[in-house]
Amino acid sequence: MSVQSRLLNRLLLAAAMTLVSASLAFAHIRIAPTESSQGAREKYTMRVPNEKQVACIRVEGEFPAGVSIYDFEFKPGWTIDFKKDAKGKIVGAIWTGKMAPYEFVEFGMLGLNAKDETSLVWKFVQYYDDGTKEEFTGPPGSRLPSPVTALIPAK
Ligand SMILES: [Cu+2]
């Protein structure tokens, strides 16, 4: 191999590795929308990608205090267990099912936003069939950040 083609190879490899790590970074559990209105009813969608070479078998969610989730989208093959507080408010959920490598699933939820909160910080933990888990509970900009929805004043 010439010096040039060796250099080119190295550049291509570096570019490919950058693409791989970038796509993994974008594949975290997300919540849409990232902005909603105070006091509004909103459909929130949790997008869960499988980022490993084994099945994802469970997702546990802890909901922000500033939203009341009252309905969940039915997903064939998945069961949902709610977590409620002492007052009966749904404060979290566990989705149990099976998602193969290279798949993603979107789980919808209906919620009522509080009138006096400016942001919703969601916490999710994703469990895999090999016993590993990823906790999306970190601050913004961390490796595994909590999804955040900003709440703006209603017009
Ligand atoms: Cu990720």
The percent range for strand residues is over 45%
Q: Average pLDDT across residues?
A: 90
Q: What is the number of helices?
A: 1
Number of strands: 12
Describe the SSE topology:
Blueprint: H1 3-26, E1 30-32, E2 35-37, E3 41-49, E4 56-62, E5 67-72, E6 79-84, E7 90-99, E8 104-113, E9 119-121, E10 123-128, E11 133-136, E12 148-152
Parallel strand pairs: 2-12
Antiparallel strand pairs: 1-3, 3-8, 4-7, 4-10, 5-8, 6-7, 9-12, 10-11
The protein binds copper (II) ion.
Copper (II) ion is lined by residues 24, 27-28, 51.
Can you characterise this structure?
The chain is an alpha+beta fold. It has a single domain (28-152), classed as Immunoglobulin-like, CATH 2.60.40. Helix content is 15%, strand content 46%. It is built from one helix and twelve strands, in the order αββββββββββββ. The protein has one helix at 3-26; strands at 30-32, 35-37, 41-49, 56-62, 67-72, 79-84, 90-99, 104-113, 119-121, 123-128, 133-136, 148-152. The strands form three sheets. The protein has a five-stranded antiparallel β-sheet, with no helix packed on it. A four-stranded antiparallel β-sheet has the order 1-3-8-5, with no helix packed on it. The longest helix has 24 residues, at 3-26. The chain is globular. The model has no long low-confidence stretch (mean pLDDT 90). The structure holds copper (II) ion. Copper (II) ion (CU) binds next to loops.
